Amino acid sequence: MGRHSVPDDDDSTAPGDEFTAPGEEFAAPGDEFAAPGEEFTAPDDAEWAESDEAVHWARSGEDLSWDDAGAVDDGSMDYTAEDDDSEDDPADVDYAGDYGDRGAAEYAEGDFAGEYADDYSDGDYSDDDYADYPDTGDTYSDYADGTPEAPEYTRAAAAAPVASRSHRSDGELTGSHRIVTQGRRGVSRGVVVALITVVAVVGVFILWRFFAGVLDDRNTVAAGNCLEGDVKVAVVADPAIAGVIAEFAEQFNAEADPVGDHCPAVAVLPADSRTVTAGLVGEWPADLGDQPALWIPGSTASVARVQAALGPQLIASSTSLASSPVLLAVRPELKEKLGDQNWSTLPGLQTAPGSLDGLGLPGWGSLRLALPVIGDSDAAFLAAEAISAADPAGGAAGVRTLVSAQPEAAGESADTAFDALLDATDSAAAPVHAVVTTEQRLFQRATDLSDPGASLAGWLPPGPVAVADFPAVQFKGDWLTGEQMSATSQFERYLAAPDRQSALANAGFRVKDQPNPDSTVVDFGASIDNRVPVGDDAARATLANVLDAPAGGATTSIMLDRSLDLGAVRGALNARLGALSPASSVGLTTFDGGSSTTAVTVGPLSDEVDGAPRRDTLIGTLDGMSASGGGAVSFTTLRNVLDEARIAYQPGQVNSVLVITSGPHTDQSLGAEGLQELVRSSVDPAKPIQINVINVGDDPDRPTWESVAQISGGSFTAVPASDSPEFATALDRLLS
Question: Where are the transmembrane segments (predicted)?
Answer without folding.
Answer: 191-211
